[in-house]
């Protein structure tokens, strides 16, 4: 048993107060704890009361930390919980804080899922599977994810996928159309678009090249292969390896023969 003999406000953090018991500094508490527990000079406190005060103060400090973390942007419950656990708060304190945050509606995973989905629908090139994966990683329940993704209509997905395809067709203009399509579809898969959506998107995209564009692609790849192989092989071996290299890149044998012949004529 001891008696609170002095209470002083901290200089650097004016929301905290130092408590002195029997003339010696004991611990500090948040002003909210000071008020809620009616702490005052002359009050007698035993070890149990001191333990309760320190626990309540730890809950308050953890709550303040969580509130600060939430002040920058919306967070999921898992993000907040992980943030608190990284600070090594006890599980009981963390759970008490999480319950209070939810009660005050500071955290709401359903609202987070809708906001996150809407943001990426409108400002990024990400598809629904990517969005779903990110929400799962952030700990959002599957039912909230499903509800949020209802806003991402099939027409919107096709439109965004088609826009990406058109952009990437220009990027891969020096690849055969077969390889270009493979690269584009792999890219779109990583961005979260499904096979059926890509199939519909291809139907809306002009993916046919004119003769000049097709020739530019095969000739570009043929020159690259020639520079790599001509110093190592000649004659039959050179021709076979050139054909194999270009065939693997998706070009027809007719176009391959034409490109090899063109390179041969230029070097004669």
The H-and-E topology, N to C, reads as EEEHEHHHHHHHHHHHH
The spatial strand order of the largest sheet comes to 3-2-1-4
**Structure class:** alpha+beta
Globally, the shape reads elongated
Write down the domain tally: 4
Rg, Cα atoms, Å: 33 Å
Estimate the mean pLDDT confidence: 92
Largest sheet: 4 strands, antiparallel
Low-confidence stretches: none
List the total number of helices.
13
Number of strands: 4
Proportion of helical residues: 55-70%
Q: What percent of residues are in strands?
A: 5-15%
First and last CA, distance: 104 Å
Describe the model.
The protein has 268 residues and is α+β, with helices and mostly antiparallel strands. 65% of the residues lie in helices and 9% in strands. The chain has 4 domains: 1-45; 109-149, Arc Repressor Mutant, subunit A (Orthogonal Bundle); 154-202, Winged helix-like DNA-binding domain superfamily/Winged helix DNA-binding domain (Arc Repressor Mutant, subunit A, Orthogonal Bundle); 211-267. The chain contains 13 helices and 4 strands. The chain has a 4-stranded antiparallel beta sheet with strand order 3-2-1-4. α11 crosses α12 (235-248). The mean pLDDT is 92.
């Amino acid at each position: 048993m001891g008696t609170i003999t002095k209470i002083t406000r901290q200089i650097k953090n004016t929301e905290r107060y130092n408590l002195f018991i029997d003339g010696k500094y004991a611990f500090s508490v948040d002003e909210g704890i000071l008020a809620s527990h009616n702490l005052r000079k002359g009050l007698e406190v035993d070890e149990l009361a001191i333990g309760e005060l320190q626990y309540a103060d730890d809950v308050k400090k953890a709550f303040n930390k969580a509130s600060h973390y939430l002040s920058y942007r919306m967070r999921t419950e898992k993000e907040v919980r992980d943030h608190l656990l990284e600070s090594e708060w006890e599980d009981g304190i963390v759970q008490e804080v999480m319950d209070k945050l939810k009660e005050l509606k500071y955290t709401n995973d359903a609202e987070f899922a809708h906001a996150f989905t809407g943001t990426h629908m409108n400002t990024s090139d990400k598809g629904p599977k990517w969005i779903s994966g990110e929400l799962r990683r952030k700990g959002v329940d599957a039912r909230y994810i499903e509800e949020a993704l209802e806003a991402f209509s099939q027409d919107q997905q096709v439109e965004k996928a088609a826009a990406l395809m058109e952009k990437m067709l220009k990027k891969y203009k020096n690849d055969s159309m077969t390889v270009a399509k493979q690269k584009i579809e792999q890219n779109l898969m990583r961005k979260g678009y499904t096979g059926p959506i890509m199939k519909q998107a291809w139907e809306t995209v002009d993916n046919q090249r004119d003769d000049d564009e097709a020739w530019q692609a095969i000739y570009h790849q043929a020159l690259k292969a020639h520079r790599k192989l001509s110093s190592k092989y000649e004659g039959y071996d050179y021709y076979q390896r050139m054909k194999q290299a270009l065939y693997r890149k998706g070009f027809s044998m007719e176009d391959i023969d034409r490109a090899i012949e063109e390179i041969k004529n230029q070097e004669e």
